[in-house]
Each structure stands twice: as C-alpha cells, then as structure tokens.
Amino acid sequence: MPTTTTKADALEILRTLVGRDDAFFHEGQFEAIETLVDDRRRALVVQRTGWGKSAVYFVATLLLRRRGAGPTILVSPLLALMRDQIAAASRAGVRAVAINSTNPHEWGDVLRQLAADDVDVLLVSPERLNNPAFREQQLPALVSRVGMLVVDEAHCISDWGHDFRPDYRRLRELIARMPEGVPVLATTATANSRVVQDVAEQLDTPRSDGDGVAGVVTIRGPLARTSLRLGVLRLPDASGRLGWLLSHLAELPGSGIIYTLTVAAAEDTARLLREAGHEVRAYTGQTDPGEREESERLLKDNQVKALIATSALGMGFDKPDLGFVLHLGAPSSPVAYYQQVGRAGRATANADVLLLPGSEDEAIWQYFATASMPDQARAETVIGALVAAGGTPMSTPALEARVNIRRTPLELLLKVLDVDGAVKRVQGGWVATGEPWTYDRDRYARIAAERVAEQQHMIDYEQTSGCRMEFLQRTLDDDTASPCGRCDNCAGIWYPASVGSAAAAAAASSLDRVGVVIEPRAQWPTGADRLGVPVRGKISPDERMLEGRALARLTDLGWGGTLRAVFSPTNVDAPASPQLIAACIRVLGQWGWRERPAAVVSMPSRAHPLLVESVAEALAVAGRLPYLGVLDLAGTGPKGEPGGNSAYRLSSVWGAFAVGPELASALPSLTGPVLLVDDLIDSRWTLTVAARMLRQRGARGVLPFALALRG
Q1: How far is CA 122 from CA 67, 96, 119, 181, 437, in A?
Q2: Per residue in 523-566, pLDDT tens?
Q3: Higher model confidence: residue 161 or residue 199?
Q4: How far apart are CA 556 and CA 260, in angstroms?
Q5: The pLDDT value given to residue 391
Q6: Which helix (DSSP H) or strand (DSSP E) does residue 407 occupy?
Q7: What are the tens digits of pLDDT across the range 261-290?
Q8: How confident is the model over 382-407, as a mean pLDDT?
Q9: Which of 437, 550, 597, 676 could cysteine-pair with 709, CB 3.0–4.6 Å?
Q10: What is the side-by-side strand order in the sheet with 548-553?
Q11: Yes or no: domain 228-366+448-510 corresponds to CATH 3.40.50.300
Q12: Residue 648 three-state SS
C-alpha cells in the first residue's frame, strides 16, 4: 500500500488519539509506523518520555487492523501502566483488554472477545506469558493470528539495564514464534548503547520456521527534556531534608512525586507531611493494590499535593501535567534517575526536578544490592532438588522447604534458570529440563562491575559542575547532548535552600520517633520437620512470644542511620551509648503492654555481646527489674547466615539455646512476663525459639525487645 495513503490514514488516527485537528507526528513517529505497517519489520524505538511511543503502537495497530491483521499483543510490565494504556487506547478508538493477576474473573470474557475478533490490543504481563495454562492453551491460538507484537519498557529485557526482569528474557522465544510478516516493536526511554544493542539482538531472533529476519530498525531520538529544570540540593542530614520539604512543599508547582529509597522512608515522610497539613499519600510495593490505584487517581485529579513513593511508582505512570519530581535520597544509577524524573513535565512547558541526596545513600544501595543474576551454589542446589524429584513438578513452596532460599529470591532465581533453559515451569510447579547449565562467572562479574560503575556515575551527577541534563543524556549515550540552559549549573540556583526553624524542629522530632512492632510468629514453617525440627502447624498460644518492640528499622530515616553504623561489619562491639539507651527506654515507656514485665533476660550474641548486655542491664535498672542474665548457647550455638528461608532459619536456631539452672529456677516465681532483649532481628525465629523455651520453663509470657529490625 502506498506510503502516502498510510501517512494520511495514520495522521487521521493520531488526531483522534490526541483530540486535536492540528496534531502532527513528532520526528521519528511516522518512520516507526511505516516500518511496522508498510515494511512489516522489527523496530526498536528509543525516545524520551512524553515523545509519544504509545501513539506509534496504537496508530500502527489500527492501520494493521484495517488491513485485516489480527490483534496486537502488548507486553506491559506494570498494572498502573496497563491501566493508562487501556485508557489511552479507548481515546483513539482502540479496543484494548488486559489479562493480569488482578482480573482473573474477566479472563473468560476476554478470551471470548478475542475469539470473536472484537479486540484490537491484548495487554499481558511477561509473567503471564510463562503461565503454563496461558502458554499452552491460549498463546498458540493468539500467535497464529497476531497482527503485531509490542514490548513496552523494553530495557527490562536487558540484564545490563537498570530494571532487568528475567521474565522479559523469555520474549526472545515468543519473538521467534511470530509468523512471517508480523511486525515487532520494542519501546523504551531509558537505554544506553549497551542496552540498545542487547535488546536489538533479542528482537533479531530468527523465526522458529528457520527463516531469517530482515534486521532491526533502531529509531533513536534526542533524550533532552526541555521542560525539566534540574537541581541538586545538599543538606546535612535527613532532618534537614524533611525540614526543607515542610518549608517549601507548598511552593512547588502543581502536584508531583517525592521518591524515597525505602518503604519506611516513604511512610515516615508521608506521615510527617500529613501531620503538617499537606495532602499526601505513601505509595510503595507494600501498599494495598486498591489503595495504590486510588492514590494514582487522586494524583491525576490533583486532589493530593504529592505521592511519597518508592520505585514502585515508576514506569508507565502517566500524568502529563505532573509539576515536580523530588528525590529524598538518590537512586543507584543515573539511568534509573532519568526514568523516574521523566514522569514530570510531559505536557507542560515547565516542571521542577530536585535531588536531595543523603549521606546514607551509598549504604542503602549496598543494603539493597541484590543480584538479579544467579548465585552458582544456590542455582546448583535448586537444579539438584528438581532433578532429585525425578520429573515430578515441584511447587515453589515445596522447593523452598528443600533449599535454603527465601521465597522472593527463589522465584527470581527460578525465572533466571528458566530463561537459561535449566528448569521449566509446568502445570503443578517446576521441573528440571535435563539441559546442561554452566555458571557464566565472567558475564555476571561484568554486570556486577557495571552496577558499581553506575553508582559512581550517580555520585558524579550529584557533584558535576556541568549541565545536569547533558550529563544524563551522555550517560544514556545520546550524541545530541548539549547544555540545557535551565538547570542549577547552567542558569543558577532556582530553588530555595533555607529550612525554617519550626520546620527543622518538627522534622527532628519526627525522626526521633521510636518503636516498631514485632509481630509474634503464629505458625511453624512448612517443611521444618524434614530438617529435623519436630514441629508443624500452629504454634501453641502457651509457647508463643507476645507482641514485641524494636527501637527502629535499619532502613528508617531517623534512628536507622545510627543503627546501620552500630551494626556495620567494621564497627567494634561496645556498650550502647547513653543516647541509644535513652531511646530504648522511651520505647518501653510508649509500649502499652497489657502486663508489665517482671524481669529482664538477654539473648546470647556472638557479634554484639557487650551491646546486648548493656542494653538489657540498663532497661532493668530503668524499670527497677531484676536482670536474670543471658540465655546459654547449646552445643555450637546457632548456625547459618541471614537470608535463608523460614524452615532453614528455624532449623539453624533449633536446639541452639539453653536455659541455665539459675534462670530456670527464677522463672516460675515471676509475677509477670519476661522482657527478652536481642540486638538485630530478621526472621524472628531466634526469638520464637527462645520464647518457647522460656515459656516451657515457667515464664508467664515473653515480651521481645530488639534494637533493630532488618528492612
């Protein structure tokens, strides 16, 4: 079909999509549409946020549908992104539906609509494509009549990218199954040359029928965001950063997003701002999905000043008039930073972007540094367990009970091994494929080194005296990079640097809050009996610990910094400082327990014995309680390292402690529960086992207290 006709038809659809009769294509948009519709080729589009990548695939979809093609499969990584894409599709007259984890009750209707050819775009997550039922029952029929395949946020394909997702790697197999003449489009705004090359190689996969493909057309535009005014403001501490927010949030244009590095920081910041009268909400991966959706709507409708968010609010959130993006703490790479600030100023002439880095940022990057690449020993353990199952599918919980890996990292590892061909997800769980698997040590070491380099680049961004937008563009290998003329280095400081005294005091008071609930374990972990621990089912109420308290989380903005220093591997064990003791005493004063403790006991600690005993003794003195000493270590004591799954964590501490004769004789005569003091808790199994022993020896109850909670 002639290109002139294609262009006229495409322009008609575009104007319907944006609701303007004078709309025209941005540079590169029609080139991409033509590549897909007329040439039926594969294209990789790397363009800045707000350029209009969704317009390319919606316009191309309707053009292909008019020519008799089947529906487009759009692989989309986030529910928020899917919601926005469906809304945008409807504005263009595109009939779009989704199959995802939140709408299984609608899947039957969706499949009937597909069968009746009443769907133009089917949105699916990469995880759904590997669901055995979907992959085996629905996907073959879809592939046989698909009109186009679109991979949105395609940088997730590349393990060199800042947001690598193993499920995206499986798209190589799907692309290879595409029938002849089916165009494939991949889009992203955050890809440097290494990522572009990697993604292009995935797209260039030969078809499964053995025929080659005509190569990948890469359409790459300038990544400068002329609407953004970038800046970096260094303040001495978290109190200063929060004080700045209290002083100046109301002055920021419109509504926006304030990013934090941790869930605790998002929740603490949102609480502080709400208490000061600001309409804000926390938005994290732990927020209820319904609440997240409501928060997105409130921000889009300008009914809140800001969402205080972790990276859970990232790709695909579409509010064209977002007025500002702030960061309390820096992301670990400039590429991730560019992706997040790209939410602002998409359809406005001006938007403010300010980074308030923290001295603790590097420690937090290290704390959260989880390799998306497999650990060799763990990978071989997982493969070995599946091989030993003899081809019988093993569910993730069942596998978790046989390997010392927690659920979330285990699921990630299984996905990586699935992509590598060593394991396969089938109905009922996972099986080993029998294919040889070799640990690619050199490749993973290069990726790890790249991650470290990215962190240094982020520090360089904070410290540069040159143009900040130009720096981000060069990090993304944009050869059109040039000074923006708007950032604080180009045009001078545009943001206030002052912190009001009242705001500083309020922030300091908020950060000085203490006390985090320690929930008691109520259930023994599945599979513990296979590891020699003779328990299963519910933990008897007569053997459970009571609800406890920790001073703070290691990730907290306030006391978290102090505690990270205390528990640093380079820190020498010593008695607690007077300030730390005073904070612990405040926790007890605010506890609100049903029954006051009658005595204090401490856990034995190999790493921090002086610290733990000093806290226990000080709390006993403050509460005028007897200090009954420390539990004994039994045999070699606890074994294992933090990070294993529940069954293994329990087995590593089972039988590791003992109640000495003097302590055993004192417990039955106590008139109230025991306050059990520990240093740093993670899985809570150490405290659970110790509490069970104390209860069995006559304690009326056990109130656990710890200096810090991980996470």
Answers
A1: 18, 6, 7, 19, 34
A2: 998 888 888 899 989 999 999 999 999 999 988 888 988 998 89
A3: 199
A4: 11
A5: 92
A6: helix 407-420
A7: 988 899 999 999 999 999 999 999 888 878
A8: 89
A9: 550
A10: 516-518, 548-553, 702-709, 674-681, 599-602, 627-630
A11: yes
A12: helix
Residue 158 phi/psi, 5° resolution? -90, 130
CB–CB of 673/546 below 8 Å?
Answer: yes
The average confidence (pLDDT) of the chain is 88
Cα 66 off chain centre by: 40
Q: Which DSSP symbol is given to 658?
A: E
Structure tokens at 402: 């046989």
Q: Which residue has the tokens 């603490």?
A: 268
| Distances in whole angstroms, Cα of residue 510 to Cα of each of 237, 268, 286, 528, 558 | 13, 8, 22, 41, 8
> For residue 562, what are its two tokens?
């102090």
- Tell me what pLDDT residue 688 has: 96
> Tens digits of per-residue pLDDT, 153-185?
888 877 655 556 777 777 887 888 888 889 999
Question: Please, where in the chain does CATH 1.10.10.10 lie?
Answer: 376-438
Q: Minimal CA–CA distance to 415: which of 93, 125, 647?
A: 125
Q: What is the CATH number of domain 512-709?
A: 3.40.50
User: What confidence tens digit (pLDDT) does each residue in 499-529 have?
Assistant: 989 999 999 888 899 999 999 999 998 888 8
**Across the strands, what pairs with 548?**
518
* Residue 14 Cα distances to 8, 9, 45, 93, angstroms: 10, 9, 18, 11
Q: Please tell me whether residue 375 adopts helix, strand or coil conformation.
A: coil
Beta-strand pair 423-426/429-432: antiparallel
Contact 334, 481 (CB under 8 A): no
Q: Which of 337, 349, 352, 350 is nearest to 256 (CA)?
A: 352
Kindly state the helix (H) or strand (E) to which residue 432 belongs, with its residue range: strand 429-432
Sign of CA pseudo-dihedral 494, 499, 502, 506 = positive
What DSSP designation does 222 have?
-
Q: Where in the chain is the domain with CATH 3.40.50.300?
A: 3-220, 228-366+448-510
pLDDT tens for each residue of 605-656: 989 999 999 999 999 999 999 999 999 999 877 876 655 678 888 998 999 9
Helices 53-66, 29-37: crossing angle, 10 deg rounding:
30
Of 673, 276, 329, which is closest to residue 502 (Cα–Cα)?
276
Residue 101, number of CB atoms within 10 A of its CB: 11
Q: Rounded to whole angstroms, how far apart are CA atoms 219 and 34?
A: 12
pLDDT in tens, 44-72: 999 988 788 888 999 999 999 999 999 99
* Integer Cα distance of 184 and 75 in angstroms: 11
pTM of the predicted model over 0.85: no
Cα separation of 24 and 623, whole Å?
74
252: how many CB neighbours lie within 10 A of its CB?
Answer: 20
* Burial (Cβ within 10 Å: 0-12, 13-18, ≥19) of residue 593: middle
- Phi, psi at 185, each rounded to 5°: -125, 130
- pLDDT at 400 > cutoff 90: no
> How far is 190 from 312, CA to CA, in rounded Å?
17
The pLDDT of residue 163: 58
Give me the DSSP letters along 261-308: SSHHHHHHHHHHHHHTT--EEEE-TTS-HHHHHHHHHHHHTT-SSEEE
Element at 621 (helix H, strand E)? helix 609-622
CA 183 to chain centre: 32
Residue identified by tokens 């740093």 is 680
In 3-state terms, what secondary structure has residue 210?
A: coil
Which CATH number among 1.10.10.10, 1.20.210.10, 3.40.190.10, 1.10.510.10 corresponds to the domain 376-438? 1.10.10.10
Q: What average pLDDT score do residues 457-465 get?
A: 97
